[in-house]
Design a protein that fits this description.
It contains three helices and 25 strands. By secondary structure, the chain is mainly beta. The longest helix has 12 residues. It is globular and about 75 Å long.
């Protein structure tokens, strides 16, 4: 059997230097036909070797942390696909982040707001989480054991589902925390398994304990249309967790995926389209917008695009872009959240500092 398989492979793939076959594959001993299906393409992979193969999209852009060489960003909104005559109003107030527990970390990557407790949460790429009301001191802090669990190499966004803080990574993997009252006793084993440091009264958002076995505290969403895409944003409306892909060379479309907050399994996916009342420029499409942050207001989603410095308004239940605004004064936005009528944008300045900038909510 080994010999017959080896012989078949030789005929199908070709003698060296040929190393491949056509698709679909069909075997014949007529060498005048078979030689036309052989290819030497595999040798080109040695020029840029990757154990994952050739179909690996570039990673997400995070200023000072991960900057793929092939990604460039035009910041002028007038160069985008839409003719825009409206802009988001800056409130000309910014916040420096001076929380002592976060000073030791390189980069803060995500911000979220919990309206139930009137608190923000800030998350670093090392998965340090600080709850705060004023960005100066924390009201709760944990540091995850980041390497222990499913890969979450780049943290890109966060969102509160009720009192659960969802911390999202670029590869659709996520974890989370939940503050509890001091009267609640947290299993020390659960804390040890999940956190390196904790101020107390904070527990993993996802866990179960059965007969000495602890369920991993990290989940992931398996997608179909966006299987070859990374994401840079997470938000929710209470019922579903929403993710929007960033485009790449293999899958350029903007895809909205959503998972039920009851079990965090994929519930659906849609390719973003444009409402009939919103006009595109001639020979343009929406596929080069680069969504880095989202949040939901009522039945609409605000989506911030790093490329073209544009805030898109999305009818997320129908996966349609219905409006667009110019937004000025941001340099390298990473995440955003909305409190009442104010948009808080986490921005990485070009002098390597994380700062929070505020804008008026247009909705």
């Amino acid at each position: 059997m080994v010999c017959s398989n080896a012989f078949q492979a030789l005929i199908v793939n070709g003698i060296p230097p040929f190393t491949g076959k056509s698709n679909p594959d069909r075997l014949t001993f007529d060498m005048s036909i078979m030689i036309k299906t052989w290819t030497t393409e595999v040798w080109s992979r040695l020029a840029k070797f990757n154990l994952l193969g050739k179909n690996v999209p570039e990673s997400v852009f995070i200023k000072d942390l991960n900057e793929p060489k092939n990604l460039t960003f035009e910041r002028d909104s007038s160069k985008g696909a839409f003719e825009i005559n409206k802009s988001i109003i800056s409130l000309n107030r910014s916040y420096e982040i001076t929380i002592p527990e976060l000073n030791q970390f390189q980069s803060i990557n995500a911000i979220a707001y919990n309206k139930n407790s009137d608190e923000f949460a800030l998350i670093t790429n090392e998965m340090a989480v600080a709850y705060t009301k004023d960005f100066n001191k924390s009201s709760g802090f944990v540091l995850f054991d980041k390497t222990n669990g499913n890969d979450m190499k780049y943290i890109v966004d966060a969102t509160f589902v009720g009192d659960k803080l969802i911390i999202g990574a670029f590869n659709k993997t996520f974890s989370g925390t939940q503050k509890v009252s001091k009267e609640v006793k947290i299993d020390p084993m659960l804390e040890w398994q999940t956190f390196k440091q904790t101020s107390g009264s904070i527990m993993p958002a996802f866990f179960s304990h059965k007969e000495g076995w602890y369920e991993p505290s990290r989940k992931y969403i398996l997608t179909i249309r966006s299987k070859q895409n990374y994401v840079h944003s997470y938000t929710n409306d209470g019922n579903f967790l929403y993710l929007i892909t960033v485009p790449n060379q293999f899958s350029p479309k903007l895809i909205l995926s959503y998972a039920s907050t009851k079990d965090y399994l994929l519930s659906g996916e849609s390719v973003l389209s444009i409402d009939k009342n919103l006009k595109l420029k001639k020979d343009r499409n929406i596929n080069d917008y680069y969504i880095v942050a989202t949040d939901i207001v009522g039945d609409k989603m605000l989506a911030l695009s790093l490329r073209y410095s544009t805030m898109l308004v999305i009818d997320y239940k129908n996966a349609k872009i219905i409006d667009a605004y110019t937004i000025n004064g941001i340099e390298n936005p990473k995440s955003m959240t909305i409190k009442n009528d104010i948009i808080y944008i986490l921005d990485r300045t070009n002098n390597h500092k994380d700062i929070i900038k505020t804008y008026k909510n247009p909705l």
